[in-house]
Amino acid sequence: MNQPLAAASAPAKTAGWDGRSLRQMLADSEAAFAATGRCFGVERLELKESDPIRFEKLFSRLRGSLVNARETSLNISASPIVKELGELCFALYGPEGDSITLSTGILVHVHTMSEAIKYMLRSDYEENPGINDGDIFVNNDPHIGNVHTADVQTLVPIYWAGEVVGWAGGVTHVMDIGSNTPGSNAVGPTTRYEDGLYLPCMKCGTNDRLFQDHVRRCERAVRTPMYWSLDEKTRLAGCHMIRAAVQALIREEGIATYKRFIREVLEDSRRTFVERVKQLLIPGRYEAPAFIDAQFAAEARLPAESRKDILMHAPMRLTIGATGRLDVDFEGAGKWGLHSFNCTPSAMAGALWVALTQTVMPNDKVNDGAHFATGLHCPKGSWVNPEVSTTAHSNAWYYLVPSFGGMFRALSRAFYARGYVEEVNAGYGHDGNILQGGGIDHHGNQSAVSNFEMSCIGGGAGIIRDGLDHASVMWNPEGDMGDVESWELVEPLLYLGRSVKPNSSGPGRRRGGAGYECMRMLWHTATYDLQFVGDGAVFAYPGIFGGYPGASGYRFAIKNNDLKAIFERRAPYPTADRNADGRQATDLVKGDVILDKRATDLPAAFREYDLYLSFMRGGPGLGDPLLRPAESVATDLEEGIVTAAFAERTYGAVVGEDGAIDGAKTEARRRALREDRAAKAMPVRDWLAKERETRVLARDLSAPVIDMYRSSMRVSPAWAKRYRDFWRLPEEFEF
Amino acid sequence: MIPSYDRATLEELLDGRLPWPEVHGIMSAFKDPDRFDKMLEIHQARMGWSDRILLPYGEHLYIVETADGRRIVKCACGQELGDYRSNWKLDALVRVRSTRAEIEELYPKMMAATAGWMELREFICPGCKTLLEVEAVPPGYPIVFDFQPDLEAFYAEWLGRPLPPVSRGSGG
User: Fold this and answer.
1) 3-state helix, strand, coil in chain B (%, to 5)
2) Is A718 inside any structural domain?
3) Are residues A645 and A701 in the same domain?
4) A156 pairs with which residues across the strands?
5) Same domain, yes or no, for A572 and A714?
6) In whole angstroms, what is the distance from residue B107 CA to residue A650 CA?
């Protein structure tokens, strides 16, 4: 017992390579990158150059094993969000936490999990609580590495001969996270303390088994314990499949080859990304600001300080340097707030990454190599980088998704200029409505629902084609709306109809993809809290090259109605709200009607037979709508994508008495609209002079707009200067 | 294998006439490195003017070098929209839809943005009256400068040839 201290505390057993700790490996990797600009300082891609076929096979085998892990393990889940819509993904990381390859799915998390692993290394988890073979970790904290709390990550170290050679990570979007309002995109939280269950990089199992206390704790913290538990087993099974696949590969190829491969593949991807930027894009500066509303001024259920109408400002600037480096800057984003929409730099980095995987690097090795070739500026104190850790993030996606909508437009300008017109895409529509809520369901159980039909909103228009109708969503390029029958199993609401939403697609020479709507009716529940989540006061996703945004959203419900009697009489019932005026339903059903533009609200009680309309938005358009071929408008009319009234007003397409488009009248109408357009326009410089005096200097703006400017100018003196310079305002000008 | 497509194929692609399976093949393949020059030729041949196109800038818009050596944004109709280093929108016409009635001409009432929160700014070519860009921004927002290319770096460092010298009086 009296041995010298040094002898008593033998060097801690380290799991890094060459006797180093994992933390040291991460520090060494970062130092090598800082010194050389290359991942791990790799100069020559020796493995790739000496045996390129083997190099590709190694990547393909790993990639295949990840896709296999996803496709197999999702069958464990019972949640339609995971099982049907595929809101999960898996990734393989190197020992320092850089992603090597990934499965398909909700790709944003490939990078957020990377940050979680690095957090554990930087925080000396190797020493306490230990990172051992068979350990299991869980994380969902956006301030560590995540978007919002409902995206739950499982992380498993992969050992070989006493060393960590990598990590397997899996993420699923769970149905409920125990926030102060139900569902996985909760809008009720205003601080971290209402966000629900936080699992900030915690060891939750060892020897390949979950700790019983962790399992019980989580099941008691969320409203959907059965789904939670099966989701966790989904993630764990996938991670273990990946670990087995990596170890099998090492057995066959040798550990030296594997170690060399995971270094080279990152550097190879970094170089490939830079090459692709130079091959596909144009150096320069791109601007694409975005906005989204939340109308909470009349929301009595929120704390007093949160009761206000807010307009999010995401002034995205993309700069592509002559070296091929790509930098995204959110300077000017407004202050973080007492609401659930705040984002962290980790969330923004994940979103940048998922945007790039769908645009600049969709068909090569996708991994963190691209991350090393990009920069992201998230100003401190803004909603993209709150300087406090007490902010709520439960619905961070609500701000995050529109803020990256402009990324697609910006890159599309470059694709067009470069001649790659097939890649041009005006972006995507707003990923709402989210039908969300909770209560006692039709099985008599406590439940929560977050309907994920919004993973199939309308796509953006391209140069060579219209936007995809009710197709996919920014955060999961494999979007699926899920079967009606599956949603009816988990939600106490029947589908009375699911159909294309007329006039939802953004007008343009190429129109945006159409959205769709679902008429839902509460069923076999005495009372159930439901809310709407979506844009209402703004168009969150503009078009490009003269195309218009997809339509904005609204709230429609008929409560305390006579549907029960209508069914008993076997009389007609409503299946849609085709004209977005409520009439299709109110002509048939009597009750208390909610029909307004406050499209994001808080959960409120619904009763059996109450109607709820869920409208999934359309995508933005491209080009002057008056140049849309008349036969394309005719097809839109036939398919119910546009109604005759808007075909004439927007496209100048006149429908004749026979129901077909009248060519001569259409030509005349288009000429008239063009003349009308010119007659109502004025030179921009004249308009600016007028606007400066009557609007800006006079501060003749609505309260949420003034709030938005005030917030951005206070957080960012640089943006304030930009604003004052543009309008030639005095230095002391402020809102 | 690095692909290359003939002019007819690229014209069909640009016009949206290429059958989808072929488009899909192009999208899935490696990109053809000679695309920029070929597309430039296609655009140039379609214009009714002879100013040399330096960069396709957007549907109907081009950055060109004029006969007297100015580098400007120019509409397909021939309308000039100012030096490419400043925002072409400043030389356009604008129609602003800021009232409820104006926005609801294009969208059903419940699917329109709310006046006061957002306006639609329609930037129109003063020559051909084509709608060139639509901004959806809150009132009072500075005009967005969508795209400011670094032409010098693009030509010299990425294409590997200098930006064509300013050809004063050469006719482009």
Assistant:
1) 30, 25, 45
2) yes
3) no
4) A168
5) no
6) 9
Interval A226-252: pLDDT, tens = 999 999 999 999 999 999 999 999 999
Percentage of chain A exceeding pLDDT 70: 98
Q: What residues in B contact A709, CB-CB < 8 Å?
A: 140
Task: Flag whether A300 is in a domain.
Answer: no
B122 touches chain A (CB under 8 A): yes
Residues A549 and A597 in one domain: yes
Q: Which one of A623, A644, A670 terminates a domain? A: A623
> Are A202 and A226 in the same domain?
yes
Asked if residue A617 and residue A484 are part of one domain, the reply reads yes
Instruction: Look at chain A and report how many structural domains it folds into.
Output: 4
d(CA A271, CA A249): 25
Task: Return the domain boundaries, chain B.
Answer: 1-46
Chain B contact probe: residue of A272, A295, A360, A624 with most B CBs at under 10 A: A624
Tokens for A610, please give them: 């109450």
How does pLDDT run across A686-704, given as a tens digit for each residue?
999 999 999 999 999 999 9
Residues A557 and A671 in one domain: no
Q: Would an 8 Å CB–CB cutoff place B110 in contact with chain A?
A: yes
Q: What is the ipTM of this complex?
A: 0.97
Question: Which of A270, A299, A319 is where one domain is finished?
Answer: A270
Q: Which residue has the higher pLDDT, A1 or B147?
A: B147
Dihedral sign, Cα of residue A490, residue A492, residue A497, residue A498: negative
Looking at every residue in chain A, the average pLDDT score rounds to: 95
Supply the DSSP string of A253-322, one letter for each residue: H-HHHHHHHHHHHHHHHHHHHHHHHHHH---EEEEEEEEEEEE-TT-TTS-GGG-SEEEEEEEEEEEE-T
pLDDT at A35 over 80: yes
Q: What is the pLDDT of residue B89?
A: 98
Same domain, A438 and A553: yes
Do residues A110 and A94 both lie within one domain?
Answer: yes
Mean pLDDT of A53-73: 96
Supply the range of the domain harboring residue A691: 684-727
Is A251 within the bounds of a domain? yes
Of B26, B31, B148, the CB nearest to A284: B148
Compute the distance between CA of residue A547 and CA of residue A541 in angstroms, rounded to an integer. Answer: 11
Q: For residue A596, give how far its alpha carbon lies from the nearest alpha carbon of chain B (Å).
A: 7
- One-letter amino acid identity for A405? G
Name the pLDDT band for A559 (thresholds 50, 70, 90). very high
Q: Would you give the DSSP letter of residue A130?
A: I
User: Whole-angstrom Cα distance, residue B172 to residue B166?
Assistant: 9
Contact residues, B window 124-153, toward A, CB-based 8 Å cutoff: 124, 126, 129-150, 153
Interface with chain A: mutation pick from B131, B132, B146, highest number of A CBs within 10 Å: B131
Residue A303: exposed, middle, or buried by beta-carbon count in 10 A (0-12, 13-18, 19+)?
exposed
